Structure formats: structure tokens, C-alpha cells
Model the fold of this input.
Amino acid sequence: MSAVLESGKGKGKRPVAPVLPSPAAANAAAASFAALTAKLDYLEPAEIEQVRKAYRFADEAHLGQIRASGEPYITHPIAVAAQCAEWKLDDQALMAALLHDAIEDCGVTKPELIERFGAPVAELVDGLTKLDKLQFNTREESQAESFRKMLLAMARDVRVILIKLADRTHNMRTLDDVPREKWTRISSETLEIYAPIAHRLGLNSTYRELQELAFRHLRPWRYAILNKAVSKARNRRRDLIQKVQHEVESTFEDAGMEVRIAGREKTLYSVYRKMDEKHLSFAQVTDIYGFRVIVPSVIECYTALGLLHQMYKPVPGKFKDHIAIPKVNGYQSLHTTLVGPSGVNVEFQMRTEAMHVVAESGVAAHWLYKASEQDGESSDRLGTKWLQSLLDIQHETRDAAEFWDHVKIDLFPDAVYVFTPKSQIMALPRGATVVDFAYAIHSNIGDRTVAAKINNVQVPLRTELKNGDVVEVVTAPVSTPNPAWLGFVRTGRARSKIRHHLKSLAQAESQDLGEKLLTQALRAEGLERLPADDEERHPIWEKLLRFTGNRSRAELLTDIGLGKRIASIVAKRLVTMLAERGERPDALLITRERYTAHENVSQGEVILDGSENASVQFATCCRPVPGDEIVGYLGRGEGLVVHRNDCAVAKRLQHKDSERFISVEWADEPVRPFETGLLVTVVNGKGVLARVAAALASAEADIAHVDMDDERAQDATDLRFIVAVRDRTHLESAIRTLRRTPSVISVQRVRPGAPS
Done:
């Protein structure tokens, strides 16, 4: 927001007593608009007239409002529009730039803007008004919520963020007029939020200017010291730099090459950051000065590189080819550092004119080159992929803090470049793993990843990728994402896709369990099956959903599966509704169901075989295995929790919450082993743990966990095992094997309700 108004910037109110601008300020405003019109020569006359209309409207709307500098407020929208004109944005964007504070400050409504200037302009202004309300110095949750809104506006129409960056740039240029106590907040926000976005979109000149201005107001003393040091160094090395430039120009002239050579000085903030991060003194920063060599074609970039390397010796390890492998934001150039006269290092950047425009203007270059570059590759280079990926993440992530977590990773990229088996180059954040790579290709490939090869060598999925790796992903149709992947993936896209899949899987399983529970509860009420949601019974389902407060049949069944609704209560209500329509329950079925049901259980029976995954949990307090007498407890939002019948925890819950218990039974053939606890008391001695482990292995019981008392001085000690067994018979066989083992004093299963 342009937080630089004094009196007169009310929330939707015009000032009561307008302060008339001084003649000097009025002249400045007129001159500013004249300067703006001089920059609009790329627009059609009709488009310029539309911009002029927007100016007149804004001028009238802001009449009487004064900036902190004493200038009329209209000078700010004009400056913002002038910056947008530098980027050659279209007439709609320029109109929005002029009107960007009209809704917030002047009581102008969105319908009024639609009527006067059309829906596209009104949408841009509305998007900017929402951005103006963002504050980034609050706690992380609200910061995340605000940031999400900003990025969404950015992904929907990138012109919104371009105008916002122009707005922030002008506010930073005039920050000296703002009270000093606001400098830290505004400068920190600029450095942490707006400068990285400008960099991510390839707006390098804006990025550098925002950093410099923020640094100057955030660290005035350090800025002044560095500025003085750089000025001195510039004076000392002026002759040397002129000599290098003269020699380079002569070399290119002799070679018959048309080039444009421009000096490049490292910004004070980048010098400061380099000194801070690498613990260097100012004298140790050697690449403060450099040159840009602009040539007509890509081939001549490499020719220029060859000529320069013949003139001066290159510094080893300081050559980067960003033409063959562009940066994520579309930046392309050849970089090399050479040892110039007197042993001073000088950096050179070689690029074409088109690359230079993209390097300075980034996404804004879309408007500069939209007529000549209509190919898909161009738009991909200009950051479009990244914007779309943010939209994908937001679509799957409704939690603001989680979204901030995803996006924070992608906003400050330190890219690593890898190849697909077909030699396609992919850019990922440094530290990205094979799983990040798989999700970057396609979410279906990520979901079904089972193994991977890097440079034809089999590697674990958590392996971090390095520059130049050739990565091959192996998939399987039945594979699904592993929750453990969340512990090592780096990209927001991979994390959101994995979480989305796991949530969907748990919901589907809970829905299936809920349908099973409701069907069984209906049988106890005399209905053979769950009524279909067809045209005839749809009104009954709608009435039932109003009773339960659910939005859909699927949501109701999921809630029953998660224990948020009691199946028997829903079943009774559904039977009553059907009875009102003349559909009577089957008395014989009621008698049969009640005769076979457990006397303490209020709902039907669920058969368990171990394939239930997230919808059913086996209680860790008693660790039931097939063959144990069991009961099921529908926890509030936890799904079905299975306890042993004699578990102390289950008995306490049954006494307090009996209507949430349901009858559960083991399937005849469970599909997996189940874990339970064993307490083994042994005589202390060398190799005793190995003998006990060997005995369990011979009984085919897998050890999931082992713990022991720290009582080395005593004769006996307790070993606590969690072992996986097929059923109770298998467990008893393992216990008998242990009891026959030398050094074992006693073996017992961990008591229900006791810690295992």
C-alpha cells in the first residue's frame, strides 16, 4: 500500500477540507503527466486516449489528497504508470496503474470502474486493492493467508503484480518523506517479499533497485560506509577499467564484430551480502566491476567469449553458460571472470539484445516481444510454469500456513539442473530429491514411483540430485505415495501432491467403513441394505442430510467412518423417514440381527483382515492379534480403534462412552501380520539378546522394536519386544520357543492397558 499520505487518505472517504496544492506542485504534476505521454508512443492513438481518460478520472478522485512530500497525490499513480510504460505494458495495465488507489482511498466502487473503463481494468484495480491491504509483519498464519492471496492474484494475471512492483518501487524511491519509524517495516517487507518476487519474475533492474533502496533505509550507516568505499575504489580503478574497455573494444573492432559494451557495477547490497555471507573484507570482494557485451546473435556470444579468453586468462571455475541452460526465471547470458591488467578480476557477461531485455525486464518482456515471440518455449522461459505451479499448490492446499510452507521453498530458488533420460533439462531447487524430480515431471509419475536410477546406478528415493545428473524413475501401477516421503522432499509441489493423495486415500477408506457400519446398523433396524440415492429416494437423503448437518451422502458416510456420527442414530432416523413413506422394516430380520448381536454393542459387526489401512487403527495399549476377543471403538474423528476385550483402556471408554462401541470380528484369513508386545526376563550375560532374537527368528516372528532395562549390574533384566505375528496360535508358538531358550527366565505377553 502507498502508506505515504498525510491527512486526506481516509478509508473510502474524501477529505473534508481539501488542501490545495501549491503552484509548484501542480506544475510538477503536469510535467509528470507530460513525461508519461511521451512514453506512450508504442500505443495506438485510441489506447492513449483511454489512458488519458483514466488519468482525468484519477486526478479528480484524488483531488485534495497530498503525499507526505507535499506533492499532489496524483503524482504517485503517474509515476507508477510511467514505470509500467517502461515495461511497455498494455493500455489496460496503464489505466489500472493510474486508478490503483481509487477504490481504497477515494470511495470509488468496482461497478463504477466497470461502467467507465470495462471489466478487465476493474479486475486489475480490484486485485491491486486487495494486495494493498496485505501486511507481512504479523504472525505467520495471517502472513501466509495474505501471501496466498497475493500470489493467486499474481498467477491469475501477472499484470497485477507488475503494477504492484512499480507501486512499491516508487514508494521506496520516496521513502525519505515517510516518518523514520516506518522505514524498518517497509524496507524489511520490500527485501523479504517484493525483491525476491521481482527476481523470480526476472525483473532484474527492479530487483536491484528495490534491494538498494531497502538496504539504504534498513542499514543507513552500513550503506554510507560501503558507498564511500565503492566510490574510492571506483576512482582508484577508473584508469584500469577504461583501459580494459578500450582494449576490448579494439579487439572486437579488429575482429569485425558489432558489439555494444556497457560497464556493470555490483550493487552495494550484493557487495554487503557477499561480505556478510562469506565473511570477507571489502578488499577481498574482487568482482565489483564488470562489463556487459551485447551482440547481435547467439553464435556471436560464444565468438565474443573466445576472443575475450584470448585477451585475458579466465579464472578457473568462474565460467557459467546460462544460454544453453537458462535460469528458472528465463535469464540467459554467458558469464566469465578474467584476470585483467594488474591482476584485477573483471567479470564479463555476453548476451543478445533480446536476452538483455529478458534479463532486465523478465516477465514484462512478454509485452515487449509478444508480437515476435508467440512460441510456447518463450512463455515457459518467462516464468509461466512457476506461476501455474503456485495455482496448482493452492488448489490442493486449503490451509494457509501449509501453503506458505510450500511456497516459501519455491520463492528463493538455488537451482540444480538435471536431465531426463531423453536429455530434457529440468531445474529444481538445490537439495531436491528423486521424488521431487518425479513430481516435477507429472503427479501420476510421482504417485507411482517405486525406484530410481541416477547415471544408470540404482539409488534410494531420498537421494539428493546434483548438477548434470541423468535421472530415471521406475514406476509401478499399484504403487502409492509413502507418508515417509514428506520427511525429505524439498519442493512445494511434491509435498502438496503427497499430502493431497494421502488425505484422499484416508477419506475414501473412511467412507467405505462408514457405508459398512451404516448398512449393518440398518440391518439391526430391519432394512436389508442401504437405500440407493436415486431419483425416488433422493428427497429422503436430502432430509437426512439436513438432520445430520452434512453437505453430501459421501460426507455423511465419511463422518460415520471417522466416528463423528453414530451409525445407529442415523439408521434409526432413516428407518423412521422410510416408514413415513410406507416402507416398513422386516421384523424377522430385526429378530435375527438382535439375537446374534452382542448385548453391549449398539451397532452391527465389522470383519477385519488387516487391509483397512488408515480407517482402522489397532490400539497400542493392548496390541490385539487375530484370535483375541476384540471390540471396536469409534473415536471422535479418529476412525475405528480396535482393542482387546480385556483392555483396561477399552473398559474405561466403554463405561464412559458405550454407544460408540461396535462389534468387530477377525476375518478367517487375515492378509498381514499384526504387532503385539512381549516381556522377556533373562539372566544377564554375554550374547543373551542375540540368543533371544535368534529364537524369535526361528519361530518366524519379526522383531519390530526392542527395549531393555539399563541394569547391567543385576543378575536379571527385562527385554521388551514388539513382534509381528500371524495370529494368537503363532504368538503362543513363539512364546514356547522363547521359554525353551537358555538364559530365559520367563516370557509373558504385555498386559492389556500396560505400556508395551
